[in-house]
Specification:
Keywords: DNA-binding, Transcription, Transcription regulation. The protein is an all-alpha fold and about 200 residues long. Helix content is about 75%, strand content about 0%. Helix 5 runs antiparallel to helix 6, helix 5 runs parallel beside helix 8 and helix 7 packs across helix 8. The mean pLDDT is about 90.
Length: about 200
């Protein structure tokens, strides 16, 4: 297979995935999450149910179709930051961008749907835990950060909670302004003794 064929195949897969996700979200918002089944989504998107499941592991995953990108953005805030750039400002910058995206007017109906569904709220919790673990792994793997795995996991959970709390606040940026100094202080307090 040539590079061009592989590229075309990947673009086609991405387009199919996006079509399924867009169709699902439209149906969920029009009819209600619980009123729409997987077969409804597949039929409306003009794909087989097996094709839908090859792109999404569950009905809930259709709502959170961008969660993989969210996770990559968080880990890249660690791995792609400039040399000698402190960790906490890099994380704050990315969390702020994610909060702005998730608090845009267009996102409000989606979050209302999530908040109204116990299944989606539970799925959101598992997604956040997975994001925290991925972020913790990125922090722990950075030799310049010299913190224990426990500290990395704790910080990652703080950052994910900062995102959630800020997204839910009436003034998300003000909430981040309150939360991140506490995260910075916790990170500084966990500095190894030889770095004090």
């Amino acid at each position: 297979m040539t590079v061009q064929q592989a590229g075309r195949r990947e673009r086609k897969k991405a387009a199919t995935r996006q079509k399924i996700a867009d169709t699902a979200l439209r149906l969920f918002l029009e009819r209600g999450y619980d009123a729409v089944g997987i077969r409804d989504v597949a039929a409306e998107a003009d794909v087989a149910v097996t094709t839908l499941f090859s792109h999404f592991a569950s009905k809930e995953a259709l709502v959170f179709e961008q969660d993989e990108d969210f996770e990559h953005r968080l880990t890249r805030a660690v791995t792609d930051r400039a040399p000698n750039e402190p960790l906490i400002p890099a994380l704050r910058r990315e969390v702020l961008a994610l909060v702005r995206h998730c608090t845009a007017d267009s996102a409000a109906p989606i979050w209302r749907m999530i908040d109204a569904s116990p299944a989606l709220r539970k799925y959101d919790e598992t997604v956040r835990l997975r994001h925290a673990e991925a972020l913790a792994a990125a922090i722990a793997a950075d030799p310049a950060l010299t913190r224990s795995e426990t500290v990395a996991r704790t910080l990652a959970r703080f950052v994910i909670d900062a995102y959630s709390l800020s997204r839910e606040a009436s003034d998300p940026e003000a909430a981040l302004d309150e939360i991140f100094p506490m995260i910075e202080a916790a990170w500084a307090a966990a500095r190894p003794a030889h770095q004090t």
